[in-house]
Amino acid sequence: MQQWARFAILGAMFVTAYLLILAWQQDYGHKANVETPPAVVAQAGNNSADLPTQQTNTAATDIPQSNVTPAAAANTAPSVTHQLISVKTDKYNVWIDPKGGDIVRLELLTHDKSKDSDQPFVMLQNDKHVYIAQSGLIGTNGPDQSPQGRPLYEVAKTAYDLADAKSVNNKDGKAQQVLEVPMVYKTADGVEIIKTFSFTQGDFPIAVNYRIVNRSNANWQGQMFGQLKRDSAEDPGKSDQGIFTLGTYLGGAWGTQDEHYNKLKFTNFNEDKLNQQTKGGWVAIVQHYFVSAWVPDASYTAHLESRNTGDYHIIGFRSPLVNVPAGKQYDIGATLYSGPKIQSELKDLAAGLNQTVDYGWLWPIAKLLFAGLQFFHNIVGNWGWSIILLTILVKLILWPLSAKSYRSMAKMRVIAPEMQRMKEEFGEDRMRFSQEMMALYKREQVNPLSGCLPLLLQMPIFLALYWVLMESVELRHAPWILWIQDLSAMDPWFILPLLMGATMFIQQMLNPQPADPMQAKVFRLMPIIFTVFMLFFPAGLVLYWIVNNSITILQQWFINKSAEKERAAKVSN
């Protein structure tokens, strides 16, 4: 039985390591891409990739296809150069192309490109790498489906700053600055379309609204669309861990009121294409730590869709058909989120959008761990110390169960000399030795399998914390002390893994040693094997393991001393 317990512990440890290693993929390092600033001037004119056609299934176009024939354009944008519109807020720098009104570049001012760079993280761009947020109006009178090309909006100025915006009171009664960037397109027959981007101080979501003012003599018909267009470039948010690099999900995602969170790989945008009607839904492109999402207004039923066009992956939505009678006006809009995966903000934006912080199948445990980390971080203001305090809390919660297991292991350690004597006496008679050993276990009230319990309890917590460290953008580039300047990356000096190996060795010495020589050699190698594994794991995860081992060493030492005293008192009596 003792040998089976040993093999169970060994197997559990290898399963833990194997599950973790599966989450990593080998890499030979990334060359830093030099970010180029957005083009100040863009060329207006027909972009065939953006032009819609009447064919809904075979069109090689970026713009979603309306099932109605577009009317002839009453006003055609001239082929002239135009300047991008720049917007600066406390959260990001944004550049908007007035031709079509797409966001063609977005830089996150609150997140660095890397831990060694003071450059902002580039979320959206349209140069060497294409990843943009598009929106427009299609349909019978929609200018974005005009054969002459997408509309060229007129703007009052080409540079906006949130610092110059007016202040308004939010729902909590607090004053916030709100910056509106209006863009106007007029047709020859009297229809005025005002596309407005609204930016709010302290918020990542961007409100996009269309006001159709119909001063013509006929009804205006069209649909709003919003979509994300991306090429197949690798994930720029992926953490560089040296020899091993985290393999996180990069692809599409969507949600409805009934199905809150669904993944859709880029390669499946056509084969298993998204085709859903919903109120209160969303579509997104997910990457490591960051997400871009369109959230249609919940007042209308949106059609969620996906497709691959050439080398690009597109996921988006269409509104229902909008009818604006002559002499009337109509407003329709949606919200764009492009930034870090902050769970509290995403949860308030749309149901299920916060699940883009993907903790895997252990998400219930991971969410509890993250809540604990946030609680301690609010107190100490450092994620490293928060991990230490969380580890102590977890050990206290599991103390009653682990103490019972460690007490049984301590008894196993105390009776080890007796078992060795029995092995020497009955070594050739395996059946007799097993009978005597079982009798000894029963007499001493020892359960050899109880030694598996501490590891089985720790394994899901360890795996869940791994995903918390890797998926929570709050811990991205989070420093602890001295040389540990990024808890989500490996220890650059390998000090923490070596300390982990030392604590694991000490803990192993406090456990009962295997009677089988070969088994004993394998167990002596375990600290070395796990030290090698931990060399390339996040420093925060190794820190958790060190603290957990250290507390376990103290707990086992006291229990072992207590068991030895009890055994001595029993023998003397």
Automatic annotation (TrEMBL):
Subcellular location: Cell inner membrane; Cell membrane
Domain Membrane insertase YidC N-terminal per the UniProt entry, residue ranges: 85-370
Alphabetized Pfam families for the sequence: 60KD_IMP, YidC_periplas
GO biological process, one term: protein transport
Principal cellular location given in the protein's record: membrane
Transmembrane segments: 7-24, 383-403, 446-469, 522-547
GO terms, molecular function: membrane insertase activity
A GO CC annotation given for this chain: plasma membrane
Domain annotation Membrane insertase YidC/Oxa/ALB C-terminal: ranges: 383-561
Membrane topology, from the record: Multi-pass membrane protein
Highest taxon above the source species: Bacteria
Protein keywords: Cell membrane, Chaperone, Membrane, Protein transport, Transmembrane, Transmembrane helix, Transport
Keyword Transmembrane: yes
Chaperone keyword on record: yes
PANTHER family with a match to the protein in the record: CYTOCHROME C OXIDASE ASSEMBLY PROTEIN COX18, MITOCHONDRIAL, OXA1
Family recorded in the similarity comment: Belongs to the OXA1/ALB3/YidC family. Type 1 subfamily.
NCBIfam families named in the record: PRK01318.1-3 (NF002352), yidC_nterm (TIGR03593), yidC_oxa1_cterm (TIGR03592)
Role summary: Required for the insertion and/or proper folding and/or complex formation of integral membrane proteins into the membrane. Involved in integration of membrane proteins that insert both dependently and independently of the Sec translocase complex, as well as at least some lipoproteins. Aids folding of multispanning membrane proteins.
Subunit structure: Interacts with the Sec translocase complex via SecD. Specifically interacts with transmembrane segments of nascent integral membrane proteins during membrane integration.
HAMAP family: YidC_type1 (MF_01810)
Protein name stated in the entry: Membrane protein insertase YidC
Organism: Acinetobacter populi
